[in-house]
Amino acid sequence: MGDLATLLLLLILMAVAGAWLTLSRARDRAILEARTRCQQHGLQLLDETVGLSGLRLKRVGERHVLERRYSFEVSIDGNDREAGHLWMIGNVLTALVLPTIELYTPEPSTHNHQAGNVLPFRPRNEDRDVRH
User: Fold this and answer.
1) Could you tell me which Pfam families the record lists for this protein (predicted)?
2) CB 42 within 8 A of CB 11
3) DSSP for the chain, written as a single string
4) What is the pLDDT of residues 27-86, one digit of tens each?
5) Which DSSP state fits 43?
6) Count H helices, E strands: the chain?
7) Among 66, 31, 65, 69, which Cα is nearest to 53's?
8) How many Å from the N-terminal Cα to the C-terminal Cα in the chain?
C-alpha cells in the first residue's frame, strides 16, 4: 500500500510541476504580447510584467478551451498608471484592452473671462434658493 501511495503522490507532484511550467511559459508569451502591443500604441509597459487575473472556458467551434486573462499596467506619458488586459488561448492573443488616450489642449483665451462651454461658479443667491 505504501508504494501505491508514493506513486500517486509522485504523479500528483509531476502534474502540478507540469501545469506550473506550462502556465509560466504562457505568462512569458503574454509579457511578450503586452510589450509588443504597448510599443505599437506608444505606451510604456510598467514593471515589464503581467499577472494572471482570470480563467474561463470558451467555446471555439465544437471544443471548449481555456482562455486566460492577464492584467498589466501601462503609462501614457510616464506620470500615470492605467490598466490594460489581454486574453490568450494557448499562445494566441484573442483580445486586448488598452486605455483610451485623449489629448486635450485648451485654446488660449484672449479675454479675461472663461470662453466656450465653461461656466464660472457663482455664489448661491439665498433669496432665490427656496426648498419645499
Assistant:
1) DUF3301
2) no
3) -HHHHHHHHHHHHHHHHHHHHHHHHHHHHHHHHHHHHHHHTT-EEGGG--EEEEEEEEEETTEEEEEEEEEEEEESSSS--EEEEEEEETTEEEEEE--------PPPPSSSS--TT--------TTT----
4) 999 999 999 999 988 899 999 889 999 999 999 889 999 999 999 999 988 888 999 999
5) -
6) 1, 5
7) 69
8) 83
Which amino acid would we find at residue 74? V
Cell of 92: 494566441
Q: Where are the domains of the chain?
A: 2-97
Global pTM? 0.67
CA neighbor of 91 nearest in space, from 20, 22, 44? 22
Banded model confidence at residue 129, pLDDT cuts 50, 70, 90:
very low
Please state, for a pLDDT cut of 70, what percent of the chain lies above it: 74
